[in-house]
C-alpha cells in the first residue's frame, strides 16, 4: 500500500513544481499516514504566509479611501492601463489640488466599474464610484509642482486641448528636487455635489499628510539614493510617498532633516523621537520648522491607540472606523497618522522632562514612555495609511487544499 501511494504521489502532475522542474519525492514510506493524522495547522502570518515586503497601496483623507498611484509615468507620456486612457497635461500647483473630480476608477472590490478616462494634471475623471464613500486616484505617479495651469473640464473639446500641454523636465532624486508634476485629484461624491471644503483646505490636508509620512520615521537615506529603515512598515511609507507623490527625503542626520514636497525643500530640527514599541504601539517625533520656528508633533500608530489620543468628532470617528474596517477586511495593515502644533513654552517644558528621562539611570524605559505620553495628546488626525504585505505564491491554493482535506488552519497575527 505504501509503495502504491508513493508511486501515485511521484507521478501526480498536480504535485509537480514547474518553475523548479521538480516532481514530488517520497522519502518516507509512512509519510501519508502521518499526514493523515494532522487535524490542525497553526501558522504565523508575516514572513510565513506573506513575503514580508510591505507596500503602501491605499490611504484615507477626509473620510475617503484613495488608491496609491501604481507606477510612475514620464512627463508627456500617454499610456493605456486597464483600457483607461491616461495622457499628461501641464503641471498643476498644489494650491489647486482641492478641485474634486467626478468620481473614481477601478478599486480592489468585486464591484465592476466602467472604464473611465483620466487626464492627469488637472483634468476631471469620468466614471463611477464603487461605494458612496470611496475614491480612487488613478495609476501613475502623482507629482506636486507649482505651475501655471487651469483645471479643465471633462468635455471632448477640452480633452483635445489638454493633450497638447505637457510638463517639462525630470526629477533629480539625488538633489531632492521634485520634477514637474501632475495633480492628485480629489474625487467628488458620486452625486456630483461640490466639495464643502475649499481647495486650500484640501491642499493643506494633503501637505500635512505627506509631511507626516516623510518626517515621522527613523529612515536614513544612503549615498546611492536608497533608503534604510528599522522596519519594513516605515520603509513602505517613505517609499510610497516618494514613488507615488514624488516627494524626497533629501537628507537626514541625528539633529536635522530636509524633505522635498511640492518641489520645495523644508528643513526641520529633530528635537525628540519617541520610539515605537509593542506596549506603546505608536511613535512620534517633535520637530521645529527652521523656516517658521513652529513646533510640530507628528505621530503614527495603531488606530485603537491613536484615536483616543486625538480630537475627533463623533461623525469623524464613525467615518474613520468605517474606513479602518473596510481596509482591514482587505487584509491591509493600517496606521493612523496625526499631528499637533505645540507652543514654544510647552515644547521647552516638555523637552526638559524628555531629556531628564533619557539620562535616567533607573526606570529609564518607563520614564521615557511617560514623557512621550505627556505630549502625545489632543492631536489632529491627518490621515490613515494602508500597507499590503503580499501573500507568498500559492498560499490561497494551499489553504484551500488543506480545508478540503478537513484540516483547520489557524493564523496567529497582531493585525486585524
Total of domains: 3
Based on secondary structure, the structural category is alpha+beta
CATH top-level class of the largest domain: Alpha Beta
- Write the H/E string, N to C: HHEEEEEEEHEHEEHEEEEEHHEHHEHE
Q: Report, as a whole number of angstroms, the end-to-end distance.
A: 45 Å
> What's the total count of β strands?
18
Low-confidence segments: 71-198
CATH architecture of the largest domain: 3-Layer(aba) Sandwich
How much of the polypeptide forms β-strand, as a percent range? 25-35%
Percent helix, as a range, is 25-40%
Describe this structure in words.
The chain folds into 3 domains: 1-37, no CATH class; 68-196, no CATH class; 207-391, 3-Layer(aba) Sandwich (Calcium-transporting ATPase, cytoplasmic domain N). The protein starts with a helix and ends with a strand. With 416 residues, it is α+β, with helices and mostly antiparallel strands. The chain has helices at 2-10, 31-36, 156-162, 199-215, 232-245, 303-306, 314-329, 344-358, 364-375, 395-404, and strands spanning 40-44, 50-61, 64-67, 78-81, 84-88, 100-101, 118-120, 186-187, 220-221, 227-228, 248-252, 256-261, 264-274, 282-289, 295-301, 333-342, 380-391, 408-412. Strands 3-2-17-16-15-14-13-12-11 form a 9-stranded antiparallel beta sheet. A 3-stranded mixed beta sheet has the order 4-5-7, with no helix packed on it. It has a two-stranded parallel sheet with strand order 1-18. The longest helix is centred in the middle third of the chain and has 17 residues, at 199-215. The model is unreliable at 71-198 (pLDDT under 50). It holds the Pfam family Cation_ATPase. One of its GO terms (cellular component) is plasma membrane. Its main location: membrane.
Amino acid at each position: 500500500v505504501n509503495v502504491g501511494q508513493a508511486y501515485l504521489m511521484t507521478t501526480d502532475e498536480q504535485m509537480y513544481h514547474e518553475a523548479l522542474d521538480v516532481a514530488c519525492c517520497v522519502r518516507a514510506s509512512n509519510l501519508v499516514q502521518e499526514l493523515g493524522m494532522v487535524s490542525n495547522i497553526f501558522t504565523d502570518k508575516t514572513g510565513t504566509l506573506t513575503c514580508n515586503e510591505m507596500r503602501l497601496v491605499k490611504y484615507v483623507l477626509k473620510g475617503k479611501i484613495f488608491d496609491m498611484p501604481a507606477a510612475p509615468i514620464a512627463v508627456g507620456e500617454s499610456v493605456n492601463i486597464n483600457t483607461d486612457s491616461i495622457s499628461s497635461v501641464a503641471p498643476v500647483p498644489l494650491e489647486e489640488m482641492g478641485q474634486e473630480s467626478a468620481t473614481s476608477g477601478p478599486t480592489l472590490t468585486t464591484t465592476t466599474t466602467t472604464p473611465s478616462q483620466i487626464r492627469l494634471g488637472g483634468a476631471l475623471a469620468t466614471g463611477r464610484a464603487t461605494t458612496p464613500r470611496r475614491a480612487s486616484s488613478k495609476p501613475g505617479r502623482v507629482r506636486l509642482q507649482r505651475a501655471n495651469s487651469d483645471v479643465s473640464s471633462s468635455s471632448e473639446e477640452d480633452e483635445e486641448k489638454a493633450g497638447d500641454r505637457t510638463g517639462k523636465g525630470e526629477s533629480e532624486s539625488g538633489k531632492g528636487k521634485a520634477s514637474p508634476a501632475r495633480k492628485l485629484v480629489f474625487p467628488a461624491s458620486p452625486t456630483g455635489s461640490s466639495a464643502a471644503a475649499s481647495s486650500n483646505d484640501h491642499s493643506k490636508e494633503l501637505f500635512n499628510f505627506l509631511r507626516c509620512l516623510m518626517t515621522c520615521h527613523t529612515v536614513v537615506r544612503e549615498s546611492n539614493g536608497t533608503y534604510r529603515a528599522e522596519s519594513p512598515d516605515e520603509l513602505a511609507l517613505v517609499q510610497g510617498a516618494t514613488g507615488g507623490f514624488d516627494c524626497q527625503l533629501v537628507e537626514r542626520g541625528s539633529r536635522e532633516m530636509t524633505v522635498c514636497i511640492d518641489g520645495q525643500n523644508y528643513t526641520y530640527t529633530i528635537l525628540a523621537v519617541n520610539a515605537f514599541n509593542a506596549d506603546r504601539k505608536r511613535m512620534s517625533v517633535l520637530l521645529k520648522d527652521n523656516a517658521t520656528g513652529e513646533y510640530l508633533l507628528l505621530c503614527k500608530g495603531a488606530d485603537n491607540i491613536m484615536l483616543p489620543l486625538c480630537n475627533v468628532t463623533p461623525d469623524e470617528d464613525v467615518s474613520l472606523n468605517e474606513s479602518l474596517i473596510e481596509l482591514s477586511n482587505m487584509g491591509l495593515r493600517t496606521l493612523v497618522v496625526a499631528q499637533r502644533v505645540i507652543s514654544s513654552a510647552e515644547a521647552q517644558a516638555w523637552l526638559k522632562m524628555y531629556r531628564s528621562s533619557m539620562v535616567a539611570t533607573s526606570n529609564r524605559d518607563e520614564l521615557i514612555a511617560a514623557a512621550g505620553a505627556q505630549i502625545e495628546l489632543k492631536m489632529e488626525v491627518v490621515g490613515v495609511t494602508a500597507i499590503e504585505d503580499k501573500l507568498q505564491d500559492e498560499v490561497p491554493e494551499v489553504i484551500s487544499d488543506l480545508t478540503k482535506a478537513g484540516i483547520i488552519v489557524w493564523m496567529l497575527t497582531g493585525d486585524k
